[in-house]
Amino acid sequence: MPGSGEVRVGLRAAGLNHRDLFLMDGRRGDEPAFIPGSDGAGVVTAVGDGVSGVRVGDEVVINPSMGWERSTHTPTVPDILGGPTNGTLAEAVVVPAVNALPKPAHLSWPGAAALPLAALTAYRAVFTRGELSPGEHLLVPGIGGGVAGWALLLGKAAGARVT
To answer: Which residue in 22, 128, 138, 141 is deepest, having the highest Cβ count within 10 Å?
Structure first.
């Protein structure tokens, strides 16, 4: 059951990222077990005390960056769902209610689940690390992948020249 300020999401789709593979690579048997997975979308099945704005039955996309809800500056090392905390490669996951965002109706479950971590990684690279400003030139190598595609879109939206 979710605690105060939390919701339980019954997952309809989850995404597998390179991050999940990196976290599992080289694990030793004496390390605490956890469920990987940062990206997910599903239906809210339970709501903890003190939660407003999210109800049982809501279709949501999970923001995997814990503690980074509305700030334009990302934490140096954000706490990301799915390692070391339990993640989305499960039937359900409990997350802070502020991390359960409305699923756009036009997106399929797999489409909604595939968005969050790639978009947040691109945002962090382009704006937090790269400090991109309007009018600057952004080079995006390896275009075609999820993070690169988001970097392209974010750079264009920020008024940069993107190659």
So the answer is: 138
- The SS3 of residue 10 is strand
> Any idea what the CATH number is for the domain that residue 76 is in?
3.90.180.10
> What's the rounded Cα separation, in Å, for the pair 131 and 72?
11
Residue 115 lies inside a defined structural domain of this protein: no
CA distances from 133 to 70, 95, 121, 137 (A): 20, 33, 18, 9
Q: Is the pLDDT of residue 51 over 70?
A: yes
Residue closest to 85 by CA, chosen among 102, 71, 99 = 99
Q: What is the pLDDT of residues 22-50, one digit of tens each?
A: 888 877 778 888 899 999 999 999 999 99
Report CA torsion sign: 77, 78, 79, 84. negative
Total domains present in the chain: 1
Q: Which DSSP string corresponds to 20-84?
A: HHHHHTT--TTSPP-----EEEEEEEEE-TT--S--TT-EEEE--EET-SS-SSPPSS-EESSSS
Decide: helix, strand or coil at residue 121: helix
Q: What is the pTM of this model?
A: 0.84
Signed CA dihedral, 144, 149, 153, 155: sign only: negative
